[in-house]
Amino acid sequence: MELTPRLQDILNMVKNKGEINVKDLALELKVSPKTAKGYVKELERLGFITVDEREVIKLKAEGENAIEKLEKIVQIHESEINALKKEIDDLKEEVLKLKRKSKA
């Protein structure tokens, strides 16, 4: 299951804080409460979090195994992001080379 970087960020926030209100999450993400609720609903649907009647978000209580799974997913995505950053840097360098050749 692939999580978007935004969903990973939200899970990291919840993990680091222990819990967070949907409105506070929206403020931290600099998005509307409606957008934040959409992210939360997706994470709840995927089984990563729970949301109570006060809109307080917590990691789903499945013990250490859930946290380990989450950390593994985050690590996978971080390595993919780093690989993409390197690819972007390589492409930028190639563009600069082409620009230099065209000026010569």
TrEMBL record:
The family database entries (SUPFAM superfamilies) matched by this protein are listed as: Winged helix' DNA-binding domain
* Highest taxon of source: Archaea
Q: Which residues form a coiled coil?
A: 60-101
Name recorded for this polypeptide: Uncharacterized protein
Give the species this sequence originates from.
Candidatus Acidianus copahuensis
InterPro entries attached to this UniProt entry:
UCP032840, WH-like_DNA-bd_sf, WH_DNA-bd_sf
- Quote any Pfam family the record assigns: HTH_24
Entry keywords, A to Z: Coiled coil
